[in-house]
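Researcher: Structure prediction, please.
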Amino acid sequence: MSIRTSWGAFEDLLADPLLVAVVLEHNADGTSTVALPGGGQLRVRGQGVDEGAHAFIRGGEIRGPAPAVVPITLEV
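Model: Predicted structure follows.
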């Protein structure tokens, strides 16, 4: 039995950030092309979210539907 430490949980968060993107299209090979808020595009595994909808992306894979969000920038 292993004990999960707070540091281990923190490292997991840093390894693969959870992204929100808009699904642009589904590809014939089972992947999807998505657009990130900054304007970049990624090709990710999965087609579980409709084209035009927002999706959670982690580790190069669609993880599920996401709410529509508006990116903001805060200066501290």
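Model: The two ends are 43 Å apart (CA to CA).
Researcher: Thanks, that helps.
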